[in-house]
Amino acid sequence: MKVNLTTVCSTRALEEIRSFLNKYFKDTELTDSEKNQLILAIDEAMANAIIHGNNSDATKSISMDIDFSEKRIVIEISDIGLFDESLRKEKVNKDIKDVIKEKQKGGLGLKLIYSIMDIVTFYTKDNKSYCMMVKLFGEEK
Amino acid sequence: MQLLIETVNNILHIRISGELDANSSIELDDVFRDALSQRRSKIIVDCLELHYISSAGMGVFLSHLDDIKNLGGRLVFYNMSTGVFSIFEILGLHNMIDIVNEKEEAERIFNES
Question: For A111-131, how does the pLDDT look when each residue is reduced to its tens digit (9 = 90+)?
């Protein structure tokens, strides 16, 4: 089941994205917990694409492709930003106690994405940056 | 998202309704900034109507946690749904933050401290 969502590049669009995902996952056999976690990971990645990849430029659009099957779900998001690998690792591995001590507001999204998804990769294609997130189900896991 | 704010017995009560994400969390951040600038650091958050929280929402709470403690206050959550609690759990925050079942329990924490 493949689907594409293209919407305005604004954090105001996040609610619409989550609503779209809720409908998309409604008739699947995923548990409520699996649905909620996938929606959270996608919401975090789209928020990163809007804020860090496109500086919240509402004149632009952002897009994601979802390929959902019995064994896995693959989500590809363009213009994700966050291309500095060492910075990504630093954010993901940072102790939550240090996040509190440093009064940081950001950086938790990547932690959530890496905790929820089984595979997260960043790459470029035709001069565009992409993030691909994969969640495996059943025996694939 | 909607916020209902009231102060009772020097405790700031914040009721959050709806979804707390990268867009709506700015408003909540302003509430915390205002409260802390007035040195109000005893804060109780009612999560009954909070249906979703993203990292941006979590970030608001975490970024003010140190200041709240430094002012001698506390941040206590109650009425949290399983879905919202699971997000705290993923980040390992469920053991680091006061999360109780009911309002009375939350208020008792301040009365005892």
Answer: 999 999 999 999 988 888 899
Q: In B, which residues are within 8 Å of A32 by CB distance?
A: 83
Residue B113 pLDDT exceeds 70: no
B77 closest CA partner among B57, B97, B49, B54 = B97
Q: Return the amino acid letter for B112.
A: E
Q: Do A112 and B90 touch (CB under 8 A)?
A: yes
List C-alpha distances in Å: A99 to A30, A78, A127, B87. Answer: 32, 28, 33, 16
Q: Considering CB atoms only, which of A43, A50, A99 is closest to B62?
A: A99
Assess A136–B contact: CB distance below 8 Å, yes or no: no
Query: Of A110, A118, A116, whose CA–CA distance to A92 is shortest?
Result: A110
Q: How far apart are CA B62 and CA A102, in angstroms?
A: 10
Q: List Cβ neighbours of A65 (8 Å cut-off, separation of 6 or more).
A: A2, A3, A4, A75, A76
Record the pTM.
Answer: 0.91
- For residue A71, the number of C-alpha atoms closer than 13 Å in the C-beta half-sphere is 3
Range with the lowest mean pLDDT among A41-50, A83-92, B86-95? Answer: A83-92
SS3 state at A20 = helix
Give the rounded distance of the alpha carbon of A62 from its chain centre. Answer: 12
The first and second tokens of residue B106, run together, are 């939350």
CB A39 within 8 A of CB A14: no
Backbone angles phi, psi at A117, to 5 degrees: -90, 155
Distance between CA A93 and CA A110 in Å, rounded?
10
